[in-house]
């Protein structure tokens, strides 16, 4: 579509738009894999940047907000949506207590953002708070 297939040829000079009179050697398999990988990587980076820049700032994720609420309020939740299937939200506060005034809560959140206390996750050093 964008003529990157000519970059995958084994020639020292890359011509993106060759004419019919130009000699075009055969395609190199390793170069084709490299171009495909770089295109997939570029798409993944683009999606990640859109998620970070746009989605997290302007569209709120209600599930993540609920998980953060459970962690700040020091509440763990076990939800069975089926007989043998469910969700577990580990809402352990890294501060140990959650019954504090607003000033202490802001201090605790600041300590958590500066990584001077432990992480919220179930396992040591992990931020994973929910398991399916």
From TrEMBL:
Official protein name in the record: Uncharacterized protein
Metal-binding among keywords: no
GO cellular component, one term: MKS complex
Database matches in PANTHER family: MECKELIN
Keyword Amino-acid biosynthesis: no
Pfam families found in the cross-reference section: Meckelin
Keywords linked to the UniProt accession: Membrane, Transmembrane, Transmembrane helix
Organism: Rotaria magnacalcarata
Origin: domain of life: Eukaryota
Chain segments annotated as transmembrane: 30-54
One example of a Gene Ontology biological process annotation: cilium assembly
Annotated InterPro entries: Meckelin (IPR019170)
């Amino acid at each position: 579509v964008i003529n990157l297939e000519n970059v995958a040829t084994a020639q020292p000079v890359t011509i993106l738009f060759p004419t019919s009179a130009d000699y075009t050697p055969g395609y190199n398999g390793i170069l084709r894999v490299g171009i495909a990988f770089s295109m997939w990587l570029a798409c993944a980076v683009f999606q990640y940047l859109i998620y970070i820049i746009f989605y997290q700032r302007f569209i709120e994720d209600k599930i993540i907000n609920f998980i953060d609420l459970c962690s700040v309020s020091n509440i763990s939740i076990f939800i069975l949506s089926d007989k043998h299937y469910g969700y577990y939200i580990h809402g352990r506060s890294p501060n140990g207590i959650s019954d504090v005034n607003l000033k202490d809560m802001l201090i605790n959140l600041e300590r958590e953002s500066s990584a001077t206390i432990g992480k919220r996750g179930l396992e040591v050093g992990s931020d994973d708070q929910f398991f399916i």
